[in-house]
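hiii, so i know i said id send this last week but things got crazy w the move. better late than never?? heres the sequnce for the chain we talked about at the cafe, plus the structure i predicted for it. fair warning i was half asleep when i ran it
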Amino acid sequence: MLGAFRRAGVSHALRASRALAVKTTSQRAAQWIIPSATPITQTLRSSFHTSPVRFSISAAQEAENAVPTTGSQELVNFSQLQGKIDPQFVDNITRRMKITTMTDVQSKTIAYTLDGSDCLGQAKTGTGKTLAFLVPVVQKVIAGLPTSRFAKQQMRAGDIRAIIISPTRELAEQIANEAQRLVAGTGVQVQTAVGGTQKAMHLRKCQNEGCHILVGTPGRLYDVLSSPYSGIRAPNLSSFVLDECDRLLDDGFSQDIQQIAELLPDPTKVDRQTLMFSATMNRDVLRLVNTMMKPGFKNVKTIDENEAPTHMSVPQRTVIMNGYENGFASILEMVKNYRTNYLARRTEDPELRPFKAIIYLNTTKLTNLAFQIFDRLLNVPGDFRSGHPFGNMPLYEIHSKLSQAARTRTSQQFRAAREGILFSSDVTARGMDYPDVTHVIQLGCPRDRETYIHRLGRTARAHKKGEGWLYLHKDEKVYAQAKLAGLPLKIDRSLETATKDMVNEETNEHIEQIKNAAQDIHPDERTEAVTTFGNHAEGVLGRYAMEGMKNFAIHGLGLKEAPYFRGGMQRSHGRSGNRMLGGGGGSRGGYGSRDKYGSRGGFGQRGSRDNYGSRDNYGSRDNYGSRDNNRSRGNYGSRDNNGSRDNFGSRSRGGVSDAMFGI
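okay and structure toks below
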């Protein structure tokens, strides 16, 4: 039933006895470095790519405190690269990709890496670092070929010139897409090697089309490089890139990276450039630097220590709901308010952008259910001719149950969209770069502080504005206060739907629209979503979990009965039954044909949904129009003061003061 979107060696050499020399760039200026005239001796070359050793304290201090290197030329625009890199690359960046001005990390990194130097870059995600390392990589690749005109003759899977390692499939696909845009028209071939995809298919692509640049995740890269039957080799490797180093190490890929490095050519015999990027510089990252980089590498730091991190600077609002049953309708009200008032507010704030949001949910089934409900919304419940409340704004979903191809397609579509909503599990929470996301919305408290921060990091990227919204059950506040203390969260009371007593049948337009859409989804699917969400809610709501899930199921999703739960949730409420999950919903046979719960045909053909579906037919809602005929329910954005909202305000619910938040 799931669809992608709605219509629309290391060689064990001698350990160096001295600390590695490091050159550090200026925070403000980016200059060209003239290659050193002093050759690196064989003795010094044997000091890198060793077995893991402790990065010396003096080297770490030197990386932080070295005197900035000076030069003669500052890079500001990509047009300045004319004469320094292949002209096709400059044309692709400025004309096809429509990027003219360099970001800070691009200016500094490109200036210091075109001479072939190793580089350690410290930069946040969303600052343009992908292009920062791709420019020197593709230039080294094409410079190593006889001429760009003969590049296709060199397309052999056994002659890979660059390897780029990323911690996740989505990030690897994102990097590969950017690389393909950059090398368009040059004959340079980019391929991927990521888990969760068909290995044989990718190997055939490499063998049939050739591969100059291979982008992948650590496990799959080691798999294809170590296999004697894959034909994937890199005897002339010129570039080795580790992106998101801190995440690679946090995710336990240290050994995989070591094993991959051991399969690559001896760096004392092949002139290889190593580029590493990390948002943080902890001891593990510095140890990896010592293992991988040549002496005299450049250290580029573009993070201002005085600049507040995203999770402390982005406006963050918290909506305290009467129950989870209020969640979908409250989000619907907020989205409609923004879109209704967008045009009027745009005249006051020229930087205001169309609504483009990621809605994070805590389980895969709840993610899919939310997508289906919002997909089926009607302005007038029951009247298919009344249209959708969001007009032509596209909706998407992404989670682990989709195939990798479907997830890639969804990411590409949402990335290119001017406006839209992506319903997502945590597969997009770390590192994914979706331009112009205006809102990150989280329904229910995430499992930990780190998850909240990574989700929030999908907005306010590339120096653009954004905001975060967190929707909490009133009995979730104790858990949220413990997990999110210290974050600048403010209570928002602008949404009347959040406090409606739906158990006692209080309602409004938004609630009726959600209820009507939910009835169009098979009861078993609704039951399964409640059941999986209940496993999360038990740890969040404690003794209130059973009541919370019952109200969500019956009053939020229109089920006749709440599903029974196994284990702790039942025992904590003194319930002795042990029925199968979802028993309250009846058997599938009792509902007759599932066609009754199929698509509202008025929105185009939804295609098949085989195995969480490929949904190859996405209907006809491809136009991202802005039919702003939505019914307004309040003036979104006009309540600047929001009463007394300092540190979650002062309203008390469930025995917990709102003032506990933000401490």
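btw Residues 1-72, 574-596, 598-657 have pLDDT under 50 and may be disordered. thought thatd interest u
miss u guys!!
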